[in-house]
Design a protein that fits this description.
single chain, 270 residues, alpha/beta, 9 helices, three-stranded mixed beta sheet, 2-enoyl-CoA Hydratase, Chain A, domain 1, 11 strands
Length: 270
């Protein structure tokens, strides 16, 4: 447990608990539903590297808190970083976005995503897991890019056009389409749709079964099953992030204090 103790309390938006080689990572904000913030954006890549560096981990379960996986977004925290020094802030956000996805794919053991409700911000992240489970009330949407004037270039462009095909993927990103869990299952986006009370039980059932296997088998399997995602991101993520940051550079930032902007509930009014 020494390695886990080193980083277990290092990241304020992630609760870590491990049993028999299975590490559950629960995203949260203050113990409640996870609000995607700039500090979380910065920390997640570092967390994923810590997870990969810990030899006691054999399987990872990624899930969220409450009844939503990621449906709150802290725009103010990003504006605060950009406002202090726009050039340096842009570089930090761009670099953190690249690292978050690269480090997630570099986790060298199998990953299960247990999606516990709507995911409408950074929906690409859990879909990079090896097995994706979802609750019956889960739905997917990209609510933080094109629909509000931003370029969908930080990974969503690659993941959704790959999973849905070029035309359906572009339709999803450009129109704000919502894909419910059952439709996502039919489209091959998720592997299973489960009642909420069964979600983590099923995730742990799979994880504990896998954790009995030798770690070299687990590691090599993870490598083999992530080659294609790594190839696609090598080709597309740099350019996508560049397009997103470039377009943002031509936007006029609002004259408001970012500290006064609370996290936005992206499901409000829907």
């Amino acid at each position: 447990m020494a390695d886990l103790e080193r980083y277990a309390n290092k990241y304020e938006n992630c609760k870590l608990e491990r049993r028999d080689g299975v590490l559950q990572v629960t995203l949260h904000t203050g113990g409640g539903p996870f609000a995607f913030s700039e500090p979380a954006h910065h920390d997640l890549g570092l967390l994923f590297y810590d997870i990969s560096d810990d030899p006691e981990n054999k399987v990872v379960i990624l899930t969220g808190s409450g009844d939503r996986f990621c449906a709150d977004f802290d725009f103010g925290s990003f504006m605060g970083v950009l406002g202090r020094n726009h050039a340096e802030g842009t570089y930090r956000i761009r670099n953190d976005g690249r690292r978050m996805l690269a480090a997630f794919l570099d986790i060298d053991i199998p990953v299960i995503a247990a999606i516990n409700g709507p995911v409408v911000a950074h929906s690409e992240l859990p879909l990079l897991a090896d097995v994706v489970l979802a609750t019956e009330d889960t739905f997917f949407q990209d609510a933080t890019h094109f629909m509000i004037g931003a370029v969908p270039g930080d990974g969503v462009h690659t993941v959704w056009t790959t999973l849905l095909g070029l035309n359906r993927g572009r339709y999803f990103l450009l129109t704000g389409q919502k894909i419910a869990a059952r439709e996502a299952l039919d489209l091959g986006v998720v592997g299973e749709v489960l009642p909420r009370e069964s979600l983590l039980t099923r995730a742990w059932e799979l994880a504990q079964h896998w954790a009995r296997l030798p770690r070299p088998t687990l590691s090599s399997t993870r490598h083999a099953l992530t080659y294609e995602w790594k190839r696609l991101f090598t080709q597309q993520l740099h350019n996508g992030l560049t397009e997103e940051m470039l377009a943002g550079a031509f936007s006029t930032p609002p004259e408001i204090d970012p500290k006064t902007i609370p996290p936005v509930d992206l499901l409000a009014g829907r």
